[in-house]
Amino acid sequence: MTSSPAQRLADELAQAGALPAEWRTAFRAVPRHLFVPDAFWIGDESPLEPVQRADDPQRWLDLTASDIPLITQVDDGATPPGKPGRYPSSSVSQPSLVAMMLDRAQFAAGHTVLEIGTGSGYNAALLCERLGEANVTTVEIDLDVAERARAALTSAGYKPAVVSADGEQGWPARAPYERAVRLLVAGIRDAAQCSVKRVEHVGRTTLPRRHGLLTLCRGVQPPDVAPRVS
Ligand SMILES: C[S@@+](CC[C@H](N)C(=O)[O-])C[C@H]1O[C@@H](n2cnc3c(N)ncnc32)[C@H](O)[C@@H]1O
Predict the structure, then answer these.
(1) What is the mean pLDDT of each run of 10 residues along the chain (230 residues)?
(2) Does residue 34 sit within a domain?
(3) Residue 161 is inside which H or E element, if any?
């Protein structure tokens, strides 16, 4: 039987040791391509290569099922789709980074979670798949981004609470949360933007840093792996 792009991605990550066993089912189930726009950019250095679905649908699909970040906005929106970009300003995060962050948060069945920064909605879909959509609240500051994420989540079959708001102060209306996660694109220019001033939860907060993850704990034991901060 032919495997789906999501299944192939999950199996590749697992073989590379980049996907914890408890997340494998979720990664195999969530079709990443539903969360990716028709035009994006790839690459680590300027100029960033534009990729358009209409130009080569199979390559577009293959890239959505690859362990790379897909850059969905460049140059803070100044450069249109199809043109080379100078720097990434928004992206669908790299699956292995997502897996590392989710692993570090040490979820268990029934946990409630607050995600700050819905972005594409892919991470929220993974959380829905593992924890159940009733336990997932995701906050996105950009109204258009939140609307697109809601549509993508619905098309993939998930209905978590997607809130259009500034998540810096958390989202008290659905508190308390047992976990809080925030995922920003690797290599973001100002890693200090990752700070969360107050999250009304009891549990573990995982924040990415330029070369690792910082895990903050409140009311739970520290993680097995020592947090790394750069
Ligand atoms: C890298 S994306 C998140 C990736 C996302 N988890 C995914 O699966 O695609 C970061 C998102 O955080 C949002 N964001 C930045 N600051 C925020 C804030 N204070 N509150 C809520 N969302 C915020 C940005 O608009 C952006 O969409």
Answers:
(1) 91 96 97 96 94 98 95 90 91 89 88 89 96 95 92 98 89 86 48 40 54 48 35
(2) yes
(3) strand 161-164
Please tell me the distance between residue 91's alpha carbon and the centre of ligand 1 in angstroms: 9
Q: What is the DSSP letter of 16?
A: T
**C-alpha 187 – ligand 1 centre gap (Å):** 14
CA gap 182, 163 in Å, rounded: 14
The residue type at 171: W
pLDDT number for residue 208: 57
Q: Is 117 in the pocket of ligand 1 (CB under 6 A)?
A: yes
206 lines ligand 1 (CB under 6 A): no
Q: Which of 26, 58, 92 is the last residue of a domain?
A: 92
Residue 133 lies in a domain: yes
How much is the pLDDT for 219? 42
Same domain, 57 and 40: yes
Q: Which amino acid is at 209?
A: R
Q: Does 125 share its domain with 38?
A: no
139 in ligand 1 pocket by Cβ < 6 Å?
Answer: yes
Catalytic positions are 93
Show the domain range for 62. Answer: 5-92
Contact yes or no for 146/119 (Cβ under 8 A): no
Among the atoms of ligand 1, which is closest to the Cα of residue 120?
9
Residues 121 and 214 in one domain: yes
**167 in contact with ligand 1, CB cutoff 6 A:** yes
